[in-house]
Amino acid sequence: MSFQREQQVLRMRVRFLNFQDAFAFMSDVAKLAEHHDHHPDWRNVYNLVDIALTTHDAGNQVTEKDLRLASDIEGLASLQKAEVLPLET
What we know:
By secondary structure, the chain is of the alpha+beta class. It has one domain (about 5-85): Gyrase A, domain 2, CATH 3.30.1360.20. Helix content is about 35%, strand content about 25%. It has two helices and five strands, in the order ββαββαβ. Strands 1, 2, 3, 4 and 5 form a five-stranded antiparallel beta sheet that branches. Strand 1 (about 5) and strand 2 (about 10-15) form a beta hairpin. The protein is globular and about 35 Å long.
């Protein structure tokens, strides 16, 4: 699993070759998020993308919504262009 659980958040940090690949991945995630009606907290700087998943309506807990979205994100073809990075501590 590319996502790692930190307390009550699923997190993933990925590095792409360039901004265009990172943005394509983010566009794919946006489509999934709309389909799931569940939206990530995320940050993008050039070729780096940080994603955090938690369910705000459930008191900021990890729920099945987060696990399903994480699974679908991990299955994206655009993610194959990325290197999954360790999370900063």
